[in-house]
Amino acid sequence: MDPTTAPAAALDAADPLAGFRDRFAVDDVPGAPLAYLDGNSLGRPPRRTLERLRHLHETGWAVDLIRGWDRWQHLPTEVGDALGAAVLGAAPGQVVVADSTSVLLFKALHAALALRPGRTRLVASAGDFPTDRYLVEAVAARSGGEVRWLRPDPAEGLGADEVVAAVDERTAAVLLSHVDYRSAALADLRAVTAGAHAAGAVVVWDLSHSAGAVPLALDADGVDLAVGCTYKYLCAGPGAPAFLFAAARHHEQLDNVVPGWFGADDVFAMAGEWVPAAGIRRMVSGTPPVPGLVAVDEGVRLVGEAGTDRIREKSVALTSRAVARLDTVARPHGWRLASPRDADRRGSHVVVGGPGAREVEQRMRARGVLADFRHPDLVRLGLSPLTTSFAELDAALDVVEAALGGSG
């Protein structure tokens, strides 16, 4: 069945993931939008997550009180292992869930520099997410190093050859997003990693727009370090803690620039000096955010049950349908596709750009379609395979067409 032309009802009826939509708070929520195309910024809440959080507060906290830490103290690594297995393609003992994406990126970049003493150059993309750019500049400045900026094509992103050509004997690390937050351009993770390794550098991957939407195989692809948020396709809720992956081969040299008591060898010894824990737990710093960890755990369970291969298959179908329709409705208004046309090079959102983009996004919002405006002239349509139906997408695209024409 061709996802670009088949009726939405037929596609939804044949969708093996269709039943997952009912496991999220979607259609029966008062004031629910007509269509939600912003799951690449904040996923919908799973019903089971809401139940587990209620139980955590009413029983785990209210009844167990301090005794709850007998269980909670292990959540950063337990949830990390589950995330590694279900989402990242990572063996146990290499992932922790803690802190925000920004904090974990800061830690990962410092750790990367420490892994390559004597090298002072960082390579990064000038088109990357602001936090990534700000942090790589700050880390380089603090370490007396420099940044070599790559300038990707706004719609197509960076090719592996461009990245590898920028890496030399002075390069300590490359920081790159797997999926471009603006265009959804999908980088060749394996080729970039292998190319950087050939020059003796390490790679730090930002997986925020791919974790839970694009199959990953961090161990098989030889990834060194990776971070990512959990509130997008993993649906862990606003401000949920991020994850950090560090390959086991680096653990003995892994340096945590923010040493805290929960990364210590004996958490409750209250030792006079910080002795890092063995393995990945040394990268934890402060007290774990328990409600967020519970929410991450449930989101990971859902993604694991659905399977990232099936999720990716539906993602490609949804984005391909959106591209085909936008080709028809956007071009007459002077708009362009600002994402890769090749589905194999595209993540799970589709971007169009053109005149009056902010006003178009506001007209869509007024008609009940939630999407994203991105400076200067882009509108992002985020398609979350576990919750976005083909019928919902069609309803949204009808509104996009009207908004581009000035109505709504």
From TrEMBL:
<dbReference type="InterPro" id="IPR015422">
    <property type="entry name" value="PyrdxlP-dep_Trfase_small"/>
</dbReference>
<dbReference type="InterPro" id="IPR015421">
    <property type="entry name" value="PyrdxlP-dep_Trfase_major"/>
</dbReference>
<dbReference type="InterPro" id="IPR015424">
    <property type="entry name" value="PyrdxlP-dep_Trfase"/>
</dbReference>
<dbReference type="GO" id="GO:0008483">
    <property type="term" value="F:transaminase activity"/>
</dbReference>
<comment type="function">
    <text>Catalyzes the cleavage of L-kynurenine (L-Kyn) and L-3-hydroxykynurenine (L-3OHKyn) into anthranilic acid (AA) and 3-hydroxyanthranilic acid (3-OHAA), respectively.</text>
</comment>
<keyword id="KW-0663">Pyridoxal phosphate</keyword>
<keyword id="KW-0808">Transferase</keyword>
<keyword id="KW-0378">Hydrolase</keyword>
<comment type="pathway">
    <text>Cofactor biosynthesis; NAD(+) biosynthesis; quinolinate from L-kynurenine: step 2/3.</text>
</comment>
<comment type="subunit">
    <text>Homodimer.</text>
</comment>
<protein>
    <recommendedName>
        <fullName>Kynureninase</fullName>
        <ecNumber>3.7.1.3</ecNumber>
    </recommendedName>
</protein>
<keyword id="KW-0662">Pyridine nucleotide biosynthesis</keyword>
<comment type="similarity">
    <text>Belongs to the kynureninase family.</text>
</comment>
<comment type="pathway">
    <text>Amino-acid degradation; L-kynurenine degradation; L-alanine and anthranilate from L-kynurenine: step 1/1.</text>
</comment>
<dbReference type="InterPro" id="IPR010111">
    <property type="entry name" value="Kynureninase"/>
</dbReference>
<keyword id="KW-0032">Aminotransferase</keyword>
<dbReference type="Pfam" id="PF22580">
    <property type="entry name" value="KYNU_C"/>
</dbReference>
